[in-house]
Design brief:
5-stranded mixed sheet; single chain
Length: about 450
Amino acid sequence: MARSRRFTSLLATGLAAALLLAACGGDGSSDEGGPDAEGRYNLEMWVFAELHATYYEQMAERWNEENPDRPIDLEVTVYPYEDMHNKLQLAVNSGSGLPDLVDIEVNQFSNYVKGGESPLSDLTEAAEPYEDDVVQARLDLYTRDGVLRGFPTHVGAFVAFYNTALLEKAGIDYKTIKTWEDFQEAGTTYNKETGREFGVASTGVNMVEPLMIAQKGGNLFAEDGTVAVDSPEVVETLEFEQEMQEAGAISTIPGGSPDAEEAYGAINDGDYAAIVYPAWYTSRFVDYMPDLKGDIAIAPAPVFEDAEVATIGGGGTGTAVPESSPDKEIATEWLAFAKLSPEANVAVWEVLGFDPVNTSVWTNKKVTHDPNNKFNQYFQTNLFDVLNQYRGDIGHFDSFTSENLPAVDDMFTTVTYSQIFEEGVPADEALDQAQTDLENQLSE
């Protein structure tokens, strides 16, 4: 059984009051735990995405079918992104009001695993039955000091989405694009032939840059953990992107990133021909860009010559069990089932359109090549044919596990990328300034 409550905004009812109630134990795991009079375990879960709530409800129902002796009653609450993370942080700080389970966005995750201490339970043992099939890089993403604190939702392997109908009119074959240099050449040609935009230079999200930096073998932090956004690999990446922008191969986009409402409309209208983004972006095409059905081909993301990795995971949600949950044992067991098991990962693809972290699904052609699947019907090429080319070559970007990543991400997406892509500040100068500002900020 799963019960869901939907909140469009905590602000409408007074965010401060809502947070105060949570901090004082107004909801969350304040009881003694264990099954209720009907033998059900009542679990409260916080999420920030409506679609995730729908998925978890299905996984709760499936769990109950397979475990009638230990059924759960899952209550999922959907909050706006910032509201939920603020509410979670306040509950952590106060030591009360925490739910039994919670989705934490990847760029926020380090806020809850600082200094070797964490309010989140150790999930390492629960993951062991699935480890042979789960992409290790995605487990590493939520691991600190050898302890797994969150389960991944998807791989988020970077791929390229090409509008072949547009490219063919400009005489461009997307299959010839292998490297970032190829991408720049194709984009420059496309821009000159059509006067329209090719790829995207995002200002509001730090997404493609980590892929390119990782391919160069770089990071955003030095080995001692100090910030290093002015390192050679970072500077080279942003200088190359700025060069691509000047050549017409990439351009800024409404909303600041491809994953913004304003951007969906622009892409759907054919204003951009190439999107390099994590594989979960398949769901955005299907849900928000219906006019492009049949026009989009999925291909491997471009690489630099002698790249150290072909791709990494981008974006993500780590789902955790707070240590304070009185039912953390069954919450952990259910969560491992809901996030790592083969049957759950089939649903990750079929319901969410995400690339499953359990790679046993990748070779199940009844699932991956199902002609009735709405994602397979939308795209010209099959996502899993691309993913299987990456098998064994999905890298882990170490910077994603730094406790200072939120500060760097905020600096890049509010200041640095706008300076580079909108104001034309030379990349090395913008990064030097970001380095100085971050050093000052993090030393306070």
